[in-house]
Design a protein that fits this description.
- The chain has one domain: Nucleic acid-binding proteins (OB fold (Dihydrolipoamide Acetyltransferase, E2P)).
- A hairpin with a 6-residue loop joins strand 2 and strand 3.
- It is α+β, with helices and mostly antiparallel strands and 161 residues long.
- About 19% of the residues have low confidence.
- Strands 2-3-4-6-5 form a 5-stranded mixed barrel.
- It is globular.
- The N and C termini lie far apart (57 Å).
Length: 161
């Protein structure tokens, strides 16, 4: 005999079937940093509000000129932290690179974002001489440059083909 399901039970089943689709989204619908999906487009951290980008070549040449200033950097993700996604190396079209890093690990980007277009907003910061340490991670080290952009927000997008 076929029994008719009660509406509440049917709703519960529908929610359970849909749960895997919802479970992958991180805060505000962004893909978590440990995602292995090819699609990494999205915003991580704060919204980008700076309108005019600083050229990486100018920043690399005279980082002290920008110390403490909030800047917008644009380019391509040349490399990314494979520990937690706490840093990215940004490369401009002329090959100049600069490191953007989440100093408090509040902005983590997907580990598979290498090659993505990137816009970073952050504060130009002179790093102390001591190395940055991850909590609970062995066998992982981060680059230790003198100057970084402390990431406040990151936007990733797929390069045009």
């Amino acid at each position: 005999m076929i029994r008719v399901l009660r509406p509440g039970f049917a709703l519960l089943i529908a929610a359970a079937i849909s749960l895997p689709a919802w479970a992958h989204d991180g805060p505000h619908g962004v893909v978590p940093a440990d995602s292995t999906d090819a699609q990494t487009n999205g915003t991580y951290g704060a919204e980008i509000t700076e309108k005019k980008p600083v050229q990486l070549a100018k920043l690399t040449k005279s980082p002290s000129k920008y110390k403490g200033k909030t800047v917008r950097l644009e380019g391509r993700v040349k490399d990314v932290c494979q520990g937690q996604g706490c840093w990215i190396e940004i490369e401009s079209k002329d090959g100049t690179t600069f490191l953007a890093k989440s100093l408090d690990e509040s902005v983590l980007v997907p580990k598979n974002s290498k090659g993505q277009n990137v816009v970073v907003q952050g504060v130009v910061t002179q790093m102390p001489p001591k190395p940055h340490e991850h909590h609970g991670e062995e066998g992982h080290s981060c680059p230790a440059p003198t100057w970084v952009v402390s990431m406040l927000g990151v936007e990733l997008s797929t390069p045009a083909r």
